User: Fold TetR family transcriptional regulator from Amycolatopsis keratiniphila.
Amino acid sequence: MGSREEIVAAAAKVMREQGYAHATTKAIAQAAGYSEALLYKHFKDKTEIFTSVLTERLPALGTTLDELMKAAADAPLAANLARLARITLSFYLESFPIAVSLFSSRELLATHRERVMSRDRGPEVPLARVAEYLREEVRLGRIREDADLDASASLLLGACFQYAFLASFEDREPPPEELDEWAERLAGTLLVAVAS
Assistant:
């Protein structure tokens, strides 16, 4: 593992333990065993480290969406929706403890918002990507043409986010079987609403 990967791994650990707001670049560099100067050779700022943690160290929501876009027809719609719900549950369960501290300060949130939006990495991206995937299912004739895809994406992601919020609030790590069951239930509910 190279220094960049070690920094991202250390950042994920520090951010999980301390939240984004309190995870300083100094603490991240120290946890990785490197100088802060080396950290800045790989990353522009803490926001870039945060987005790297989201894309490289957490469950691969983006990769799953890419795969579903390319091969949606290879599996039944119900299986695709359950797979999407399952990875989304895992992603939010992992990212919620890190991201929640962004809301501890209006100034911190505003600064972070400005930086991620300038890089097209904001929280609206998963919504747009899920709606795009659902449009592919419409094209395949498996979702009704009159289905509200933006609302469907919001319902799916919102339900997964709420589940992660409750688990984090309860300081509970749900077992994989529970996540599998909940993903299938979410997929089945959405399927009833949108299937052609």
Summary: Residues 10 and 171 are 22 Å apart (CA to CA). The chain has two domains: 1-57, 59-194.
